[in-house]
Amino acid sequence: MPRTIALLMAGIVGCYGLNWFLSEFIEVVYVDYLNLIGLSIILAVGLNVVNGLTGQFSIGHAGFMAVGAFVGALASILFTYGEIAAGPLEHAGLAQFLLCLLFSGVAAGVLGVVVGAPALRLRGDYLAIATLGFGEITRILLTAQDSLGGPTGLKRIPKMPLLPGASGWDGGTSVFWIYLFVFVVIVLAVRLQRSTFGRALIAIRENELAAETMGVPSARMKVVAFVFGAFFAGIAGALYAHYQHSVRPDDFTAVRSIEVIVMLVLGGLGSVTGAVAGAVVVTLLPQLLRPIEEALGIDGLSMVVYALLLVTMMVFRPQGIFGQRELSLKLLRRLIPGRRKESP
Amino acid sequence: MTNPVLDLADVNVFYGAVHALRGVSLRVDEGEVVTLIGGNGAGKTTTLAAVCGLLRPKSGKVTFRGGDVAGMQTHKLVAQGLVMAPEGRGIFPNLTVEENLKLGAYTRSDKAGIAADLKRGFELFPRLAERRRQRGGTLSGGEQQMLSIARALMARPNVLLLDEPSLGLAPLVTQAIFATIDQINKEGVTILLVEQNANIALKHSHRAYVLETGEIQFSGPSAELRNDPRVKAAYLGEG
From CA A186, how far away is CA A48, in angstroms rounded? Predict the structure, then answer.
């Protein structure tokens, strides 16, 4: 327990330092990329527990993000302004903001149980279709809610709370908050993976029947994994809402769910490092390709190159960048030639 | 007569409209090795599935240590001491041998006991000790079968259900596996063994049931059945 607290403190200090450094020395455009990457990492590392570790192919992740975004946004607006009305943006209070994030995570998590308990009885393609359906239903239901702004969604979502000594930061405190949760989700995912519980999830992926004959309550454990992913998707949604200051239901189409899957497959399903790497590549690549597209004057070129890269990757390295491996000292040591142990 | 530790009474199982088990009754006493032999599609694996909760019988009773367990969830039965080593071995290919074994002890929390049983498993199957850091999927068929049995033992079963341990193995490897099965039984584990290889199953069991098209045809002490002309003709390739 004291180790956990020390780790969390280190995370807080580290994120604070990162935010200070970025707002001091780096242009806002690049900080924006970094924030988008952070949000992607939270989504990808969370979904990796479901799709990678437990092997349950869910493609409705955007649905949980949408619920988190709208719950968090609405709560934050009501806490800060008392009503949905036009006016200047304000900062959310620290306690209120944390409460909003909690609401978002819990709302998405509860929905994870409601959707997961029946849907996870399905396998393979059927589960994929059911979760895809859930994501789309969520988006359409949100579009139909006039009280939540209908298709235009919620606007004037408060800024993330200020931190002591951060009043002069022009990019605000979004880096701190987003990367704090990046840190939390990665630490939790790594610990989960190394625990007996995590090994049981892998066992379900590898052979569900055999896992059940080992005494692993597979039905319940799949739901727990699903809720883990949903909870962090909810948090990511709330952070996204506070970062953009507005959310529309159409921010959470099936394309967004698929994007998260692409991150996982590209990075290596089942690897936390892979999920992070995939999130970085998939978020950054279109942004990096855009200047080339503009220079050449061919509209849509970036998407073509992006798609080609993915296809090439899947042909030559179908297991993804990291496969199931993690970036660790052991792996680095193995990559240094000359010290390799003879393998049988 | 001792009390049966596992008792099936008039168990009927359907796959849709197909009547797969027709009133199967069988009994396993404490400390016995009981084998269930029969041809392809006779219902041997279905019987095991009905015992360990993978299938819910339409009617009939499955009693384990005095309690009705028909249709109880598999993972709950494991905690009660009824453990199956599934057909096709069910190895987790991307986990190491040691991780596979540790998962066998999933329902237990006594760390010292688990460590001792892990050591015991490696003594029983020295080949597994050599390969403890190797991934399960890289083992040979015989080694996977050893791992499957060793893993099931990690749950400290009262009754161990073995589904076709000889499947796809060379005769010598099969011999070795069955020698270990004898040893496991001598150490106090009751075994219900499903086998297609009637010859070896009858040599390594106390009693046997012969299953055909979902019905028990006859049963008796294994030593007697080995000389029974019906068994000889149908399953031992003699007479």
Answer: 11
Domain presence at residue B110: no
Q: Domains in chain B: how many in total?
A: 1
> What pLDDT, on the 0 to 100 scale, is given for residue A27?
87
In chain A, where the domains are located? 2-253
Q: Using alpha carbons, select from A131, A79, A133 the residue that is nearest to residue A102.
A: A79
pLDDT tens column, A112-170: 999 999 999 898 889 999 999 999 999 999 999 999 999 999 999 999 998 888 877 87
- Listed as own residue / partner, the contacts of A221-224 with beta carbons closer than 8 Å and 24 or more positions apart are A221/A54, A221/A197, A222/A54, A222/A56, A222/A116, A222/A120, A223/A112, A223/A113, A223/A116, A223/A117, A223/A120
- For residue A324, the model assigns a pLDDT of 81
pLDDT of A341 higher than 50 = no
What pLDDT score does A305 carry? 80
Contact A135, A54 (CB under 8 A): no
Arithmetic mean of pLDDT over chain A: 90
**Are the beta carbons of B155 and A216 separated by less than 8 Å?**
no
Structure ipTM: 0.88
A324 CB near a chain B CB, below 8 Å?
A: yes
Rounded CA-CA distance A236/B76 in Å is 37
Specify whether the CB–CB gap between B57 and B114 falls below 8 A: no
* Distance from C-alpha of B20 to C-alpha of B11, rounded to nearest angstrom: 10
Token digits for A50? 């479901």
User: Out of B90, B107, B155, whose CB is closest to A209?
Assistant: B90
What average pLDDT score do residues B25-35 get? 95
Q: Which residues of chain A are within 8 Å of residue B86 when distances are taken between CB atoms?
A: 209-210, 213
Domain membership flag for residue B19: yes
CATH label of the domain that carries residue B190: 3.40.50.300
B89 to chain A, closest Cα gap in Å:
8
Q: Which of A184, A180, A192, A181 shows the shortest CA–CA distance to A50?
A: A192
Residue B125: inside a domain, yes or no?
no
- Look at residue B101 in the predicted model and tell me its pLDDT: 96
Nearest to B86 among A206, A209, A324 (CB): A209
User: How far does A209 lie from chain B, in Å, by closest CA?
Assistant: 8
Q: If contacts are CB pairs under 8 Å, which of residues 233-262 in chain A contact chain B? A: none
Domain extent, residue B85, equals 6-90+157-235
Using 50, 70 and 90 to split pLDDT, how confident is the model at A340? very low
State whether the Cα torsion A242-A135-A46-A27 is positive or negative: negative
Query: Does residue B143 lie within any of the structural domains?
Result: no
Q: What pLDDT score was predicted for residue B29?
A: 95
| C-alpha closest to that of A38 among A256, A279, A327 | A279
Q: Which residue of B has its CA nearest to A203?
A: B92
Task: State the smallest CA–CA distance between residue B83 and chain A in angstroms.
Answer: 7
DSSP helix/strand/coil, B106: coil
